Amino acid sequence: MSHRHLPALLLTACTSSADHPGSVGRDDGPNLDIPNPEEDGGYLADVEDRPLPALDGPSVSATIEDLLPALLQMHAGEIQDVYEELLTGASPGCPTWNTSPEGLPYWFDSCTSDGGSSFDGYAYDVDVVDRPDGDVVWSGWQFYGLTTIETPDGRRFESTGAAGLLTGTQADGAQVSYSYMDEGFRYTGDAHGAAWLSTEGSPQVAAYAVHQPSTGGRLVALEARVALTEGDFQAAVFEDIQLGDSEIGAPCTREPAGLVSLRTLEGTWLTLYFEGPPVERWGDGIEDPDSCDGCASVWTSGTRLGEVCVDTSSLLAWEGSPWETAAGP
Length: 329
Hints:
Elements: H1 37-40, H2 57-72, H3 76-87, E1 97-99, E2 105-112, E3 118-133, E4 136-150, E5 156-170, E6 175-181, E7 186-188, E8 204-212, E9 217-227, E10 233-244, E11 257-264, E12 269-275, E13 295-300, E14 303-309, H4 323-326
Antiparallel strand pairs: 1-2, 2-3, 3-4, 4-5, 5-6, 5-7, 6-8, 8-9, 9-10, 10-11, 11-12, 12-13, 13-14
């Protein structure tokens, strides 16, 4: 098993600009230019020619609207709680701990502790305390592991890569929170784990939230890959989704920037192209106000199927979700 460095914080994707407090630009702004759907064919090109699917607008919108609030509940803090709880089953010498050239403690072993817990693989985690990056000072937790931990009472945790939870405050006072996890984290056992952290495996989710206490403004940036086991689709992919409210300066609050792709049961990808401006273009306003209507054009393999309207307001409805405490009320 090869040594891996700590996963990048992606903080370059989370810094703010002077013109747009709470922005999420990468250097001079993320590359969120909407591609030409007639050329790019959606999220993935179909492997073979298939007849064009009928567009079931209500099914498409319902699938996305059901997923958005669920994604707000998928928070790396749950992975931290489970890992740290099961790590208490270690004993001296099991697992074996070492220190990386960067001075980071990690364990790499296949053993059974004195208390009967088994450890197999490699993992390390880091407590981040007051780490500056641009105009944000971050604190939180980061993890990387390819490992399985199992307790004598049958609780089992499997890690498949990186996870982390970071919170901080920008120079302008905005509260920020960043959570990420790779696909496939699993936990079985008691009711400690969240419903999404189960034998099915976690989705891949990275979400960045901003709350500006002085105005009450909110912003969310989201990337996710989710396998679906029920309904009309097999999977959903959210790419470069960005949505803010008017209090934080978003000129379009009804429609996000970014793409959502859904894979049908027959294996065809449908891609929704939203027309909301990305953060670095908020200062330009909206050239066509009619484009800010909450409706996305739907394409498959370079062919436009129609338009579907989606209510994405739940992305900013943090009440009752982990973001409520991580990114402010």
